[in-house]
Amino acid sequence: MFDYILLFVVALSAVMAVIQENLYKSIIILGFESFSLAAIYHFLLATDVAATQAILGAALIPGLFIVALYKTTKGRDE
What radius of gyration, in Å, describes the C-alpha atoms of the chain? Predict the structure, then answer.
C-alpha cells in the first residue's frame, strides 16, 4: 500500500513541477519527486539505485539547477 502512495506522490510531484510558475519552487518539487522515487527504489530492494537517485536526483541536480538559475537571472532582476 505504501508503494502506491509513493507512486502517487511521484506522479503528483512531476505534474506540480511542470505547472509551477516560480522556477525555484519547481526545482524544489523536482528534488522532492526524486527523493520519493529513491524511496520506491529502496522498497523494491534496489539499494544501489536508491542511493544514487537520492544523492544525484534529490541533492546534486536540484542544487546545480538552483545555481544555474541564479546565475542566469541575476542581471535580469535589476
Answer: 14
pLDDT tens, residue by residue, 36-55:
999 999 999 999 999 999 99
Say if CB 48 and CB 20 are below 8 A apart.
Answer: no
The CA dihedral of 15, 21, 27, 28, to the nearest 10 degrees, is -80
pTM of the model: 0.84
DSSP string, the chain: -HHHHHHHHHHHHHHHHHH-SSHHHHHHHHHHHHHHHHHHHHHTT-HHHHHHIIIIIIIIHHHHHHHHHHHHHTTT--
Provide the grid cell at 13.
510531484
Query: What is the per-residue pLDDT across 19-38, written as a single tens digit (0 to 9) for each?
Result: 999 999 999 999 999 999 99
Task: List the chain domain ranges.
Answer: 2-73
